[in-house]
Structure formats: structure tokens, C-alpha cells
Amino acid sequence: MAPLEPDPPAGAAVPAGGRQPRRAFTAWRGRRPFWGGTLLLLGGVEILLTEQASISVVLQAGAGGIAAYLLPLVMAVCGLLLLLNPGQRLFYSVIGVLVALGTWVTSNLGGFFVGLLLGVIGSSLAFGWLPDQEPRRRRRRRAPHESA
């Protein structure tokens, strides 16, 4: 029986056989609608940031201001939930696109169109994501062989 090797000191290089953080992140990202959730989250954050603009830039103010903060917050939460709970992606993406479209009226034209577009595109990507589909690189390599 071989003796156990001590752990490398902090800051030392990880051996080539060890699992690197980038590979772990890539594997985690591949199991969820990463870009859809990220774009929806960024859209919500962008709209929240445009709410902080000066009053001369803001197009709507008043008692309806609570919706101007609530809808982008729901967008951001749906984006996070898409990343953390991909099993419910259809529900979160439908809620995300409806809320993103609702920001057109409540939140400075959807964060001056940028947040609105990020939310709609992100929700669409998440809705169309298929968890059991193999990565694109493998499909490309295999496709020429199947057609012959």
C-alpha cells in the first residue's frame, strides 16, 4: 500500500490530473440555461440601474413607481432561479418574458430598450434550452459521417 501524499501548500500549482476550476464551471454551465439566465439577470439589473437616473431623464414617476422597481427585481430573481433551478426553466422563462415586456410601460421604456431586449432574449434562450441535448461540437463532428 502506497503512503498518502500530503496536500500541496496553499498557492501551489494543481497537478495536471486534478480537476481545474474552469472545467468545473464549464460542466456546471452545461447543465443549465446559463446564457438565458445571465441575460435575464443582467436585463433586470440594467433596468434597476436606469431607475436611478436623474428625474429629467425618467419618463414616468409617481404612485406607480413601486412597479418600476418590482418588475425588474422579479426579472433578476427569475434569472437567478434559471441558473440555480434549471428544472423549472419553462415557468421562470415565461414569467421572465412577461415581466420584461411589462417594464416597457413601468420602467423607462424597459430601461431604454436595453434591459427589455436583454430580458426577452434571455427568456427566449432559457425557454428553448434542452437539458439532454449533446454539446454542439460533438454534433458537428458526427454530422458529416451520418450524411455519407
Structure commentary:
This protein has 148 residues and is an all-alpha fold. It has 7 helices and no strands. The longest helix has 20 residues. The chain is elongated. The mean pLDDT is 81.
Low-confidence stretches: none
Radius of gyration: 21 Å
How many helices in DSSP terms? 7
Order of helices and strands: HHHHHHH
Mean pLDDT: 81
Task: Characterize this entry briefly.
The chain has 7 helices and no strands. It is an all-alpha fold and 148 residues long.
Characteristic key phrases:
single chain; 148 residues; mainly alpha; elongated
Write the topology of this structure:
Layout: H1 21-30, H2 34-50, H3 65-84, H4 89-106, H5 108-112, H6 114-128, H7 136-147
Helix pairs in contact: 2-3, 2-4, 2-6, 3-4, 4-6
